[in-house]
Amino acid sequence: MKKHLVLVLLLFVGILLQTTVFHYLPFRISPDLSLIILVYFSLRFGSSTSQFSGFASGLMEDFLSLSPLGFNCFIKTVIGFLTGLFHERLLMDPIIFPIITLIVVTIFKGVLSVLLIELFHISIDSVMVFSNGFFLEIVLNALLAPLIFQMLRVLLDWLFPKRKTL
Predict the structure, then answer these.
(1) Which pTM was predicted?
(2) pLDDT for 29 beyond 80
(3) Burial of 102: CB neighbours in 10 Å, binned 0-12, 13-18, 19+
(4) What is the DSSP secondary-structure string of 15-64?
C-alpha cells in the first residue's frame, strides 16, 4: 500500500509540473513527465502495479486537461500494462535504454491517441497528434528519460530498500 501511495504521489507531482511549470516552456511543448515516470514504474514493479499507476495518472491528467474523461486514463493504463510485461526481462543500460524506450513508448502513445480519436469520433483532428510539437515531445521525453530514471532509482531504492538474504 505504501508503494502505491508513493507512486501516485510522484505521478501527481509529475503531472502538476507538466501542466503548470512546463507550460511556460518555449513553443508550449512540454515533456510528458507522467509517461516517463510511468514507464520507469512499469519496468521496475511490473504490470499489476503499473496498471494501477497508469490508471491513476491518466485519471489525474484527464481532470487537469481538456481531453475527454477516460482518454488519458485508457492510454496510460495500456502503456503501463504493456511496458510492465518487460519487468525483470531486460538489462537496463542507464542511458541508451531509457532513451530508446521513451521514443518507442511516446510514438505508441501517439498511435493509440489517433486510434481513440478515430474510433470514438472525438472532435480533434487526428493528424494534429503527429504535428511538429509531437516530435519535439519525443525528443524531450528521450532526453529527460535517463535523468529521471536515475533520480527515481535513487529515490525508490532509498524508500524501498531491497532486503538482503543470507
Answers:
(1) 0.91
(2) no
(3) buried
(4) HHHHHTGGGGSGGG----HHHHHHHHHHHHH-HHHHHHHHHHHHHHHHHH
Q: Quick check: 98 and 105 in contact, CB under 8 A?
A: no
Handedness of CA 151, 52, 103, 85 (dihedral sign): positive
Question: 120: which residues sit within 8 A by CB, 6+ positions away?
Answer: 68
DSSP string, 108-128: HHHHHHHHHHHHHT-SS-GGG
Crossing angle of helices 2-19 and 132-159, in 10° steps, is: 150
**Does position 2 have pLDDT exceeding 90, yes or no?**
no
| pLDDT, tens digit, 9 for 90 and up, residues 43-90 | 988 888 889 889 999 999 999 888 888 999 999 999 999 999 988 877
